Amino acid sequence: MKIIIIGAGTSGLTASINLKRIHKSSDILVIEHLNKPFKKILATGNGKCNISNSNIDISKFNNPIFVKNIFGKDYFSKINSFLDSVHIKTKEVNELIYPITESSETIRNAFLNEVHKLGIKIHVDEELIDYKIDNNQIIVFTNKNKYVCDKLIITTGGCSSPKLGSDGKIFEILKRHDYKISKVYPGLCPINTKENTKELDGLRIKGLVSLIKDDKLVYQEDGEVLFKKHGLSGIVIFNIASLIARDINHKYKISINTLPKFNKETLINELLKYGKDVFLCEYVHPLLKKYLLDQKLDIISSLTNLTFNFDSLYDFEFSQVSVGGLSIDNINDDMSSKIEKNVYFAGEILNVDGPCGGYNLTFAILSALNIN
Questions:
Q1: Contact 70, 363 (CB under 8 A)
Q2: What percentage of residues in the chain have a pLDDT greater than 70?
Q3: Cβ-contact 49, 41 below 8 angstroms
Q4: d(CA 305, CA 300)
Q5: Three-class SS of residue 9?
Q6: Is the pLDDT confidence value at 166 over 90?
Q7: Measured in whole angstroms, how far is the alpha carbon of residue 218 from the centre of its chain?
Q8: Which residue, 349, 4, 342, is CA-closest to 146?
Q9: Given phi > 0 = left and psi -120 to 50 = alpha, else beta, which region is 11?
Q10: What tens digit of pLDDT does each residue of 120-160 get?
Q11: Where do the domains of the chain lie, and which CATH numbers do they carry?
Q12: What are phi and psi of 299, to 5 degrees?
């Protein structure tokens, strides 16, 4: 059997390894359009590579029913078994799973070593142009060659971090093959606000962050917000950005309670007792103090409900995952296409995304392992 995989990322390499183990006599070729395979993994988790999570809440994915079918009953043992089989030792830190080296280079080397050991070929600097089905065979056209295969697996990713491989060109190809493509937006990224935040640039504040959609509270998370010149960043903001991207045609506000451990009445009493200058010095970072005074904002209301109006998402260059993509309506639970025989998909190319914390890499691996 001849198998061609488009995309040498997490899903593509996982699928190649798993399929070679299942079909030992198969001839497997992975085609990658960048000059090196598996580049994107090096940027994961700031280079530490949070590869999975021991306590994933499937409801936090979009399309959770589809994801549940992919994950099965014991997703974590599947992940551990596969990582162990490619000689990756892991450790758990607050439910987050990392390689014990805390280096994404470890993950990359382990995958590529296994690929080499199994005799799987990788072609770099080669790009998919199109493919067609002809007499139960698939003809694949690239910018360099024409191939014939029995099974085609497309794991190109979406549009996030285009310099690391996911440029979104695949979606135009798939549209020609009558696949349904949901509009793709940046996810897990900073956001631009309508308010000028230049004065707060570089400030980090921990608090309770709320997402308000059309004046209704829809999400809350404890976390740290990093202020940028033109908006907000930080893990909690990344998660909120993905929620906005899933349903972007609404009015959104982000509210930060900078002092969630104090009730409002206590803060008011402290302010009245000690005066504004003493109170601000005791409770508020100097940058935020200056911002509140310059904006002539009510002190207590702002500290417990510091509100910013959403303007836009940062570009794909700054996003960690794509929101949108190939509709799951076109895909079976074994990741095969409902439209074309012997064509399969896995990973970020699908309209499936989760929050920070190893969710998306877990889906990338498990969706690839579902291909037989």
A1: yes
A2: 100
A3: yes
A4: 8
A5: coil
A6: no
A7: 20
A8: 4
A9: alpha
A10: 999 999 999 999 999 989 999 999 999 999 999 999 999 99
A11: 2-186+321-369 (3.50.50.60), 191-313 (no CATH)
A12: -65, -55
pTM: 0.95
**Tokens found for residue 290:** 């200056």
Q: What is the DSSP string of 156-196?
A: ---SSSGGGT--STHHHHHHHTT--EEEEEEES--EEESS-
Structure tokens at 340: 């074309």
Query: 195: burial class by Cβ within 10 Å (0-12, 13-18, 19+)?
Result: middle
Q: What is the pLDDT of residues 41-99, one digit of tens each?
A: 988 878 899 999 999 999 999 999 999 999 999 999 999 999 999 999 999 999 999 99
pLDDT band at 219 (very low <50, low <70, confident <90, very high): very high
Amino acid at 220: Q
- b/e burial code for range 49-84 (CB count within 10 A of at least 16 → b): bbbbbeebebebbbbeebbeebbeeebeebbbebbe
